Amino acid sequence: MKSAYLTLGLPGDANPEEIRQALTVAQARFTKEHLVDHPEDMERLQSIRDAAKILLNPEMRAAHDRKLQASSTTPSLSMRYVAEVPETPWYQRPIMIGALLVAVLFSAGFYLQNKNQERKRELAMMELERRKLEEQEAQPKLAEVAKREAMVAKMNADAKASEEKLRRESLVSSRNAEYQNSLAMSQQNQRAYLERSEAQRKESAERNAKYQAQQDAQRNLAIDQQRIRNLCMQNYGRPHC
């Protein structure tokens, strides 16, 4: 059976703090960049995580110790350090070396981060200076463009004012002509309206007379039919002869 203590390079009586330190050192060594370059170490990192998980859980650690004792003829768990190791990988070195490696890595990262920030600040200052120079060089050109735009705007305003004056004069003349036409049209429409009203009155009177005649004819027909039905009933005992 493979020992979790041997995987982490710890003695059989290692405490939880030592187990966590060994796991921290391993994770600092197997970074994402390292795993990209050495994908074969992914399995080693997973075995280290599994070993730490077993030893940090009291119940799982007790079960692991029982199995380890049952599979071994020598009580290796009672020893302070694991004796012989077929291979001495980096994670079986003393914890202080791993801690020193972590400190060096963090220091290097902090130094690179500061250098990057300084470089970014320098680039920002250079960009600011470049923009200031561009603005200074562009000011005369902007003034000339503004002057031209003002002249064009004045010419457009004068043309617009002349056009508006002509439009008003044309509008007044057009309105006067429209008024005269409207007056003549109104008189003509009034005469036509009177003529249409008279024609409609006559037509309405003719329709009413025709309608009244039809109503009288229908009423007389209904009276005659009723008289015939009455005579049939009197003579033959039925409404139809």
Automatic annotation (TrEMBL):
Keyword Transmembrane listed: yes
Keywords: Membrane, Transmembrane, Transmembrane helix
PROSITE patterns in the cross-refs: DNAJ_2
Biased composition (Basic and acidic residues): 160-170, 193-209
Biased composition (Polar residues): 171-191
Residue ranges of domain J in the record: 3-68
UniProt cross-references to InterPro entries, sorted A to Z: DnaJ_domain, J_dom_sf
Membrane-spanning ranges: 95-112
Location of region: Disordered: 158-219
The UniProt record lists the keyword Transmembrane: yes
Protein name: J domain-containing protein
Native species: Rhodoferax potami
